[in-house]
Amino acid sequence: MKILTIALQKDGKNISTSFELIEAAKALGGELYTAVLAKDAQVAAEELASRGGGKVLAVSHANLDYLNDELYGNVLFSLIEKYDFNLVIGPATFYGKALVSRLAAKSGGRMASDVNALNGSSDGLSVTRSNYGGAVISELAPSGGGPFFATLRPKMYPESKEGAGEVVAEAVDEALMTGKMTIRERKVESAGAVNLNEADIIVSAGRGLKAAENLPLVHELADSMGAAFGASRAIVDAGWTAYSDQVGQTGKTVNPKLYFAVGISGAIQHLVGMRTSQTIVAINKDKDAPIFNVANYGVVGDAMEVLPALTKKLKAELQG
Questions:
Q1: Is pLDDT of 191 > 50?
Q2: CA within 20 to 30 Å of 305's CA: 108, 213, 274, 312, which one?
Q3: What Å distances lie between residue 173 and 57, 72, 76, 176, 178, CA to CA?
């Protein structure tokens, strides 16, 4: 089986998910390739090769400075045709899902999104994914012709640290580097903030904070642990914070090692986005809140009293 993983970057550096994809592919066996596209892909490609990326296909072009899924799709489709891959894996992030779904449509292949695991056996390939907020676990096996495409949820596999690899500079047709969409500038919504999809620790806030003026208490707790800030749909709809912070069915699906739910009741729409977190800590005044049904640890109390005390304790422990 020939496997292609798609490495994406942020601020010119490979994101952690790229190495998780490599680890998932290595577990399947087969012939491993990794594609990296950038204005100058050489440095990123060398890092991927040194960490087990197999044959790293590096495509460099000025028009690839920003992730334009039309141009990226054109280039990756040409590589898929050239190498005839059986499996193509991308990250289940906002950009990853947009890109891989485009590739599946162009290739006429089959696709599974937001998978938790890739499984290989004598019977062939299958993927595992959650449905209905994690209440149902499905195992899907591709059938028919053409390559199979999958987007893998972040934090499901460890990052590949080492392994064999070599960089192959790929030259592609210049005609692939033009499209209907041109990206002229990229603006970072929250400079310096920890990305929700990549975060090991997330602190999320809900309506239980009572007012937007109390959100700094949550931010302070998050900052004390180097955590990302998340939010429920209720406070996003209320205008307390940006949509990019939303965790849940209509927001982002996350899988951190530690998830704090502060003042969040635990509606199924929110649980869909975070219930696979390794450890969940809930802080809520209502002892019967549904969030406690999925929490590993629960604190029944007023967040305005609990948060300052918890932040003070954490800061003292970390500084000590």
A1: no
A2: 274
A3: 15, 13, 12, 6, 10
- Other residues' Cβ atoms within 10 Å of the Cβ of residue 31: 14
Strands ordered across the beta sheet of 148-152: 136-140, 124-131, 110-121, 148-152, 87-91, 2-7, 31-38, 51-60, 163-169
Both tokens of 9, joined, read: 């970057």
Assign domain 201-319 one CATH number from 3.90.1150.10, 3.40.50.1220, 3.40.50.720, 3.30.70.420: 3.40.50.1220
Going by their DSSP bridges, the two strands 279-284 and 297-300 should be labelled as parallel
The token pair at 20 is 């998780």
Helices and strands per DSSP (H, E), number in the chain = 8, 16
Q: What is the dihedral of CA 217, 221, 222, 226, to 10 degrees?
A: 140
CATH class of 2-177: alpha beta
| Token pair for 117 | 């695991």
Domain ranges of the chain: 2-177, 201-319
Cβ of 309: how many Cβ atoms within 10 Å? 10
Compute the distance between CA of residue 138 and CA of residue 207 in angstroms, rounded to an integer.
Answer: 33
**What DSSP line would sit under 105-173, residue for residue?**
HHHT-EEEEEEEEEEEETTEEEEEEEEGGGTEEEEE---SSS-EEEEEPTTSSPPP--EEEEEEEPP--
pTM for the full predicted model: 0.80
Q: Could you give the percent of the chain with pLDDT greater than 90?
A: 68
* pLDDT digits 0-9 by tens, 167-190: 999 998 999 988 887 777 776 655
Distance CA 172, CA 186 (A): 25
Provide the strand spans (E) within the chain. Answer: 2-7, 9-10, 13-14, 31-38, 51-60, 87-91, 110-121, 124-131, 136-140, 148-152, 163-169, 201-205, 228-231, 258-262, 279-284, 297-300
